[in-house]
Design goal:
This protein is mainly alpha-helical and 93 residues long. It folds into 2 domains: 1-37, no CATH class; 44-91. Helix content is 54%, strand content 6%. The chain has 3 helices and 2 strands. Strands 1-2 form a two-stranded antiparallel ribbon. Helix 2 packs antiparallel against helix 3. The longest helix is centred in the C-terminal third of the chain and has 27 residues, at 65-91. The N and C termini lie far apart (53 Å).
Length: 93
């Protein structure tokens, strides 16, 4: 992780600067990267948007295709659960 002046932060400094944010530490290089923020998946449109993002990342080579397949499978399941919940609430009305 670099400071604004281009110099490297030590691991101790990185941990201190990320005091309230979770970080992932790369075992090989020892660098800290912030944990990705939570993705909102409360509605079908959110799931559709995330699935499209995963597709674009895999298509562009920024994500392994097998990882994209696993994420798409999980997102499909989440979408089905949202649909079932919506159908149940419509039925109960």
């Amino acid at each position: 992780m670099k400071k604004t002046d281009g110099t490297e932060l030590t691991i101790k400094q990185q941990r201190g600067s990320a005091k309230h944010q979770p970080v992932t530490i790369d075992a090989e290089s020892g660098t800290c990267t912030p944990t990705p923020s939570k993705i909102k998946l409360n509605e079908l449109e959110d799931v559709r948007r995330e699935m499209a993002s995963v597709y674009r990342q895999a298509r562009g080579g920024r994500m392994d295709v097998s990882e994209a397949g696993r994420l798409a499978y999980i997102l499909t399941g989440i979408g089905k659960l949202i649909e079932a919940t919506e159908m149940k609430s419509d039925f109960n009305k």
